[in-house]
Amino acid sequence: MDYELWSDDLDRALVHFGRPDFRACTALIDRSLRQFSPDSNDTLGMSLYARTLRLQGDLLQDQGLLRGPLSARQSYSLARAVFAELGRPRRVAQVELQLAVNEEMTGAYGTAAERYLELADDARLSARERARSQLWVGTALSKAGKPQEAVRFIEPAIVEFERLEEPIDWSTAHQKLALAHRSAGDLHHATAAIGVALDAQGTGAPMQQVRLGTAYGHVLLSDPRTETAGQRRLEEAATVAERYGMMHQLRSIRSLLGSGTTGMTARS
Predict the structure, then answer these.
(1) What's the whole-model pTM score?
(2) pLDDT band at residue 265, thresholds of 50, 70 and 90?
(3) Fewer CB near the last or first residue (10 Å), C or N of the chain?
């Protein structure tokens, strides 16, 4: 197998994933995996294999294929095993972080929060990855019905993202902060936080558009005076999510749209 071509295809697949063009990304990943026969003595091939499996996990996760055969969890678990065999501790920790995200996406908020908390202090990860872990502790706690506790993790993560000069993560963290305040019944601070996120929209990639639109719509939906505007925002986000095959996001948006005015007891 031509490993230079495989590396080029992996770069191309990452570009398609970021757009996102899931069909083209899937085609490149599947072609590479079909052509490779795992061999523990082939360090370069196994490294490319593990990286491809991790990207496959990201792809399947964004499409909502979370557990079971041919799922994100399966791809991540295999990638983690290969990285461990290769002696790549940082890569192992990165995949473990994605597995924690998988737990959160399946609704296991307590388990995810505990794992995020461990990884937030894990020296194998970079400072940015540890800050994201801390942010996601707050996300999981907010979804678990502990918004005040969530804020105590989200706010320090925002400070760290500013220190690290990570504007997209900083904006995303304000979305999470808005949802935590909203769940706590504090619409004033929720509105202020989502306003900051809207002012710093980042690259405008489709996934970011969907997440920001969903968060903004959720905040608006919490007040009867802005419910119609919130529904409109959610419908716009749903259109983008459906267009790009973001099925997990689409299911979440449809759940919010079906709930009507959620008041301050609904979960983000």
Answers:
(1) 0.89
(2) very low
(3) N
